[in-house]
Amino acid sequence: MAESALSAPRRALHAIRHGAHRVDAATPASRDRAVDALRALAILGVVLGHWLVTALVAQDGGLHTASPLQHMPWLAPISWIFQTLAVFFLVGGHVATRSLASARARGLTYPQWLGARLSRLLRPVTALLALWTAAAAALLLTGAPPTTVHALLKLALSPLWFLLVFAALTAATPLLTRLSPLWPLAVVLHVDVLRFGLHTGPDWLGWVNLAAGWLVPYTLGAAWTRGELDTRRAARVLLIGGTTATAGLVVLAGYPASMVGVPGAAVSNLNPPTLAAVTFGLAQCGLALLLRERLQRAMTRPLAWSAITLTNLSAMTIFLWHQTALMATTATALLAGRLPGLHTRPDSLTWVAARVACLPLFALTLVLFRAAFRHHEQGPRRPRNRASRLVHRHSPRTKSPHSA
Predict the structure, then answer these.
(1) Which of 7, 21, 346, 347 fits a disulfide with 55 by CB distance 3.0 to 4.6 angstroms?
(2) Tens digits of per-residue pLDDT, 195-218?
């Protein structure tokens, strides 16, 4: 009996290793695995960042959002590690421009190329909207406070702004393949001078940076495709220049130290993006480019490569549902009373420790959501073995994770 119990984990481990080796063996030698690794790490960074700094406090019969960064601003370095959207836009610009060139070489039209890329990017959104429309109606009909419903909807649907911007930049890729990142960077600089330096810009002016700010790393990705960022010197310039500029803006110009929004703060670096967020993104892009060779070597390990492949296959599903996973876990745990790290004010290291302990619960819930909704992203199953299906979705002629 004991021997059988011991053999079960061994069999499971053997199956995992066998599957990983099959995926590794089926991957074309020409595939740039570092690109996939950067995209997966960027998505996972955003997910972990949100799980660490987003709190739902149970109070006055309802739930409202809070952040440990409100009460413990010295935790701002957490946002420096996990606010990785610039890397995702860098990879997105690189992959889109490379994909467009490949499509043209194969004789595909622009509508065909764009339709293939946007279908997998936007298809998972319908499931999220349908579920939360029903959930919001049910909550209101059962007497939930409107403020609670608003807080939940705001969190659940917050990933959509990212997808809309990313979809717009993808659609504009033919116009951006030769655009220098200096142009959108100059737009962000001028907008911030008007907003914060001269205090003459209207309130809506900051939202110009929603496009211009993320256009900077996206066009950096296009420059990467053109071979302009292949040297380590270029990457170091981005890293050192971006870091120096960001430090100067925070210390000397009064920009917030946190690279994510903090509830109640007068200025958010992310909503809309500020010059500090953009220069910080430049530093992140430089670091990402410096890490390419190490990531490429790390991805030769079958287990690591298989994990990255699985993450990329469900990248949009993971991104769209991670906040819902947090809320579902929080709401379910409320049946046991107000628990630290889930329902209490995020104002102490005790809360931080409890929240870190809750991360596996969020991850488990997200795995369930991924299992339920991944078909919206991946499409119908094809009659082939799993390893070949994984690699097929990675090939340039299909809707691979590069479509995200």
Answers:
(1) 346
(2) 988 877 787 898 999 999 999 999
The three-point CA angle 15-18-20 to 5° equals 110
Number of domains in the chain: 2
Peptide bond connecting 263 to the previous residue in cis, omega within 30 degrees of 0: no
**Is residue 361 included in any domain, yes or no?**
yes
- The whole-angstrom separation of Cα 181 and Cα 197 is 23
- Last residue within a domain, chosen from 280, 298, 316: 298
11-28 pLDDT, tens digit per residue, is 777 777 877 888 878 888
Domain of 344 in residue numbering reads as 299-395
How sure is the predictor about 404, in pLDDT bands with cuts at 50, 70 and 90? very low
In whole angstroms, what is the distance from residue 344 CA to residue 342 CA?
6
The confidence band for 381, taking pLDDT boundaries of 50, 70 and 90, is low
Secondary structure class of 66 (helix, strand, coil):
strand
- What pLDDT shows up at residue 360? 96
Find, among 316, 325, 313, the residue nearest to 156 by Cα: 325
Contact present, 63 and 139 (Cβ < 8 Å):
no
> Contact at 8 Å (CB) between 132 and 157?
yes
Token code pair at residue 23: 């995926």
Q: Which of the listed residues 298, 316, 341 is the one where a domain comes to its end?
A: 298
Same domain, 352 and 248: no
Asked if residue 8 is part of any domain, the answer here is no
Does residue 336 form part of some domain? yes
